[in-house]
Amino acid sequence: MPARYDGTSYPEPQIASSLLKLFNNPELNSLTRRALQQNPEVALSASRLAEAGFNLEKSRSALFPALTGSTGLGKSRTSAGSFDTFDYGLDASWELDVWGRLKNSTRASALDQAAAAADLASVRQSIAAQTMQAWFDLVSTTKLLELAHRETESLESTRQLVERRFEAGTASFADLELTRADLENARADLERTLDSRDQAARRLKVFLGEYPDARLTSTGDWPSLSRGVPAGLPSDLLRNRPDIDAAYQRIRAADSRVKVAHADLFPSFSLTASTGQTSTSLSRLLLGKDGVYSLFANMSAPLYDAGMRQAELGAAGERAQQALESYRSTVLTAFREVEDALSSEHYLAREERARQTALAAARSAEKRTRRDYEAGLSDLLTLLESQRRVFSTEKQTITLHATRLNNRVALALALGKGI
Fold it and tell me: What is the recorded membrane topology of this protein (predicted)?
């Protein structure tokens, strides 16, 4: 690993230590908490963790003796007549873990549980981040919808201006048709933006674990970007990212299962004991007379299985190798996500400043062009082009700011900052 990240983060005056502390926005934080409580992916991951806990208890029980009780009632008929029989029995068995097979099996289950716990933490962080980004998308499309309304109103105003000039004989019919074409295109874009806003609301409702209708609305206010995310050192990532921790625990679990498969090649030892009684009289059975007791030590060893156990050992070794390669892939992907987000922090901030400057210049040019057109000093095409440039640049500015917010969340998620 390098000593530092290649990406250069955009300096911020404040530092956020978790996803929920990134933006001081009550609406956003409330939605994120609702998603963490109601999202089915979080519930599914929590159920898998609970299942892993039960699997651990099941595996751990093999380390202890097992007791089995039985009782029976029967009727027999002989030449001398018929009679009832009563019996009970108690059997005990215990496998001696000479080669550590049971211990390693239990250890593998415990590591599976640790991996499931890390998976749950990773899912919670991912759902929180995706909910935030879905909300930014809703805010962005809400702002774009407001802009589309303003664009339609502006083009309608231009159409009315050209229509007055056409009636006065100072504008051509072609000019009037051009303004009508731009107005209708703006109305078409407005309908498309309405659809995008509704889809953004539905996506957010799914993250909230609710029916995906489009009734969810937003105030349309951007959260502040004043809080940055400290990158730290690359080595910190291995401790902070829960998905990396989960992959690491799966390596250890796979290694323990290799040891289990290896122990299966050797003999197994067990102790069994049983006690019981059979009687033709229930009273004699209850008195406990004439009982039978036994105690055995058993050994069983594989003599021939056509290479099945050796094949299982080889397969277990390959599964451990797969877990290792999966871990390496997870770590490399994590480093790439951090580097991408850090680099984007720098470039997106510079791009937004340039877009804001371009937007201010476009608005100034549009005002001047409109005055010139009204005074007869400019043609219609110049006015329409200046209007298109204003609204196009403002659309880009809105989309770019949403991208910066999304990237800030992606950086916090990539660094494993938690919730």
Answer: Lipid-anchor
